[in-house]
Amino acid sequence: MSSNGLLHRFTYLERVVHWVVGGTFVALLLTGLALSYPSLFWLTSLVGGGPAARVLHPWVGAVFGLSMVFMLLLWFREMFLSHDDWRWLGAIKDYVTRNHDKVPRAGKYNAGQKVFFWVQGGLALVFVATGLTLWMPEWFGPGLLATARLLHFAATIGGGLFLIVHVYLGVVAYPGTARGMIDGKVTRRWASMHHPRWYEDQS
What domains lie within the chain, and their CATH numbers? Predict the structure, then answer.
C-alpha cells in the first residue's frame, strides 16, 4: 500500500522489535566493554555506575535474547537465499559501486540483508549461550567458563563490526534506507532502485 507517494515497508511491530534488538545490543556492547576494559569504565556512568552496569548487563541480555526470538519468528521465512540471491552476492561489487544494471533485481530483501540476518542470528545464539554460562559461573567448570568468555568476546567484536556496517549502509551509503525503520515508509524512487521486484509488486 502507498500514501503520499510513499510505500509502506515495515509494520509497527516489526519496527518495535528491530529497535528493541538494536537498543539492547548497543546497551550490552557499551556496558560489556566498560566492564571489560578499565580505560572504558567511565561508560558505566551512563547507567549509574559500575554496580548498576553489572546488574543491568545480564538482564538487558535477557531482553535482547527474547527480542531476537521475536525477530527470527517475524522474518525467517523471508530470509532464505534463492538462486537469484546467490547471483546478487556474486555481483555485490557492482551493487557497492552503484552499477545497478549489472545487479540481479532484488525482492523485498536483498541477499546482503539476508546474510546479515542469519549472521546476527548466529551471533545472538552465541551471546545468549555464553552469557548464561557467565551469568551463573558456579554451575560450570573453569575450562568451560574460559571458553565462554572467549566466545562472548569474539561475538562482541563481530556483532559490533556488523552494527557499524549496518548503520553506515542504512544512514550514509544509501540514504532513505533508515526511514523504513523509523516511520515504516520508503520513497518509490528508493524502492525502485534497491528492491525493484518488491517495488513492482507494490505498484
Answer: 2-202 (1.20.950.20)
